[in-house]
Amino acid sequence: MNIEDLDQISKMKGTRSAEEFDDRIMFIRKVLGIVALQLYITAGITLIPTLNANAAVWILAHKGWLWCAAIFLLMTNVAILCVPGMAKTVPTNYLLLLAFTLAESYLVAYTSALYQPGSVLLAAFLAASVVLALTIYALRTSNDLTMSGGSLYIFGTALFICSFVLIFVPDSPFWTVLYSGLSVILFGFYLIYDVQIIVGGGRYEIDNDDYIIGALIVYIDIIMLFLHILKLVGEKK
Q: Any alpha helices (H) in the chain, and if so which ranges?
């Protein structure tokens, strides 16, 4: 994404003063920089059990740390999104996002340890390709998906309920492929939606002070795309 892309979006989706446009560019750069750092951290942690068999055995044998990471993930997520002003309080917002990223990275590393290293690398490549393609689409399309937030919320809730139902269903490749395939589609739409509300110019957009929330939601979209693509193409050990 470059200045020309943002200028085109600004012309298509709304008008801004030069100062507002410059502020938005700085906001977008900050969000993308934070997301890039989050992904570097996650990739570094995930590569440890992926490339080291002993580390994979250890992480799979200590499931207690998995539950600790899941609880910590939920707590930091709630703090950032639900506690008023927390996402805008420096440096608390950065520390919470770092803690969230580390917890999420552990969960990704645990999941990746279940699969062959080649499958993890393939899923990472496919996820990166999907993210790039969807981001370009979000920037170039004239369709304003920020108006579809209600529909995405409904479909997301329905899929979340289905994930609980599948816990009580015998393990089936068909249901796994169906659920993961639908999840990839859903989080693909989430990514387009989130990119557009970050770029701005549509009906809805994130405030310039909410860079932590912007980074959080895009990071979650990318991670969920990776995990569900891994379930689709991955070969378990």
A: 3-13, 18-51, 53-61, 63-82, 92-113, 117-140, 149-167, 173-199, 211-233
